[in-house]
Amino acid sequence: MAKDFIVDLEDRPGSGATAAEALGKAGINIAGFCALAFGGKAFAHVLVEDATATRSAIEQAGFKVIDERDAVVAEVADRPGELGKLLRRIAEAGVNLNTAYLAPGGRAVLVGNNLDKLRVAVGASRQRA
């Protein structure tokens, strides 16, 4: 099952690099990543398969895991309007997304209030990061 981690980073140069390097040294593949900073705080979303090893590597590197959630990963064609179509299907299924970001390979990483409905809406079966 794909897992989305929210990691508390420091809002300074190199913080994200340090976290990503720690995962790499632990042999963890980062299947998706996004980060943002605002108000002096910085956070990263990291998509992985191995939740236990990820938590350990992040914490050993001195970072705090804020949250860890199951994620649905859906294919998205690289054409205008495709993300809008995907998000509309999710909305029509009554799913409220609290996380959505794009990952390499034309994939959308999605976390919402009802994973079963979310999987049906995007046509997903067994999920891998």
Explain what the structure shows.
The longest helix has 11 residues, at 15-25. Helices cover 31% and strands 36% of the residues. It has helices at residues 15-25, 51-60, 82-92, 115-122; strands spanning 3-10, 32-38, 41-48, 64-70, 72-75, 97-103, 107-112. With 129 residues, the chain is α+β, with helices and mostly antiparallel strands. α3 packs across α4. It is built from four helices and seven strands, in the order βαββαββαββα. Strands 2-3-1-4 form a four-stranded antiparallel beta sheet. The chain has two domains: 3-69, Alpha-Beta Plaits, CATH 3.30.70.260; 72-122, 2-Layer Sandwich (Alpha-Beta Plaits), CATH 3.30.70.260.
The averaged pLDDT comes out at 93
Intertermini distance: 7 Å
Number of β-strand runs: 7
Would you give the CATH topology of the largest domain?
Alpha-Beta Plaits
What proportion of the residues is helical, as a percent range? 25-40%
Proportion of residues in extended strands? 35-45%
Continuous helix count: 4
The CATH architecture term of the largest domain is: 2-Layer Sandwich
Count of all domains: 2
Biggest sheet layout: 4 strands, antiparallel
Largest beta sheet: strand ordering: 2-3-1-4
The CATH superfamily of the largest domain is known as: ACT domain
Structural class: alpha+beta
Computed over alpha carbons, the radius of gyration is: 15 Å
Give structural attributes.
129 residues, alpha+beta, Alpha-Beta Plaits, 2 domains, 4-stranded antiparallel beta sheet, 3-stranded antiparallel beta sheet
Briefly summarize what is shown.
The chain is built from 4 helices and 7 strands, in the order E-H-E-E-H-E-E-H-E-E-H. It is α+β, with helices and mostly antiparallel strands and 129 residues long.
